[in-house]
Amino acid sequence: MANRALRVLVVGCGNMGAAHALAYLALSEFTLCGLVARGDSKNRLQRQLGADLPLFDDMQEAIKQTQADAVCIATWPDTHEVLALTALAAGCHVFIEKPIATTVSGAKRVVAMAQLAGKKLVVGYILRHHPVWQQFIELAHTLGKPLVMRMNLNQQSAGAAWHTHKMMMQSLSPIVDCGVHYLDVMCQMTRTSPLSVSAIGVRLSDEIPEKQFNYGQLQVRFADGSVGWYEAGWGPMMSQTAFFIKDVIGPEGSASIVARQAGGEGQSANVEAHTRTESLRLHHSRLNADGEFAQMDEWISAASEPDHFELCRQEQLFFARAILDDNDLTQHQQQAIESLAVVLAADLAAREQRMVNIKEVS
């Protein structure tokens, strides 16, 4: 395998499947050997890629016919667990879009199967590959403890975007789907374990399942006394005001992502805007003898930050190196499970209107 490109199948040909397919075409470490989807999306993606690729309705058959080394799973969240288990059992390495599964026990089953099969399992936490988000987390480590972390991602959606959100809410609420990214960031900032979570949620549309909610907010408490807040809402009714808040506060000051354009009017449903940073603002809390701020705020420009395509390329390069260099992914997988446990506990807290100990869903 080391002497040839890895043969990879893309399973699920929507937005993220297309993004990863483009990344595979740009990397010499991979050969894109087929597209898998039940509907017409695979035909549309083939035309978009301008490549004559084998098309399949069934992943198992695709693996058999193409002799794939790896699969990229970018389907609806409620299919992730079964597809991942099937691909691993067939001898494939797996890149899977978050979340690994819709339950913590399901996520643990997938991780255990990867270990049993001796195959690599990488979870698509795209922010981990963004240099400015990495810097944002490092700045948090300079602010002392405890930390207060405030983050949201509300998306005003209509048309195709609202259709996608409604489909996603067949299996997950917004605070679960998007929340795993930002809870992962919070866990990296505190470098400690989340203990408990409270949450609220509300159903704002008759177009979504009765027991589902399309707006939610969670509050999480960590073992070191740090606290975090995350808010997410989807739909045509959502406000564009203050949809993009990403900051962390500690005794020594605060650090914030300030995305004036990506956080501006009409950007909340733009996938490209969700990873944009544009600039970081570092505030120092120390006062001088006169009781005034001893130091001006520092602005750190992110003018050359990677776009969404480059981030997907970096994710897939990480996947390739994990396979080719036999990198240990134990911590990567455990952290994916931990962040999922928090947002699933938050989902339970919102439904049952109570505080939930993280261990209840673990």
TrEMBL record:
Query: Where is the GFO/IDH/MocA-like oxidoreductase domain positioned along the sequence?
Result: 141-235
Q: Which residue range or ranges hold the Gfo/Idh/MocA-like oxidoreductase N-terminal domain?
A: 6-125
* Keywords, in A-Z order: Signal
Say yes or no: keyword Signal present.
yes
- InterPro entries recorded for this chain? Gfo/Idh/MocA-like_OxRdtase_N, Gfo/Idh/MocA_Oxidoreductases, GFO_IDH_MocA-like_dom, NAD(P)-bd_dom_sf
Q: Which Gene3D superfamilies match?
A: Dihydrodipicolinate Reductase, domain 2, NAD(P)-binding Rossmann-like Domain
Q: Name one Pfam family in it.
A: GFO_IDH_MocA
- GO terms for molecular function, please? nucleotide binding
Which superkingdom does the taxonomy of this entry point to? Bacteria
- Renumbered to this chain, the signal peptide range is 1-23
Name-wise, this protein is Putative dehydrogenase
Protein source organism = Scandinavium goeteborgense
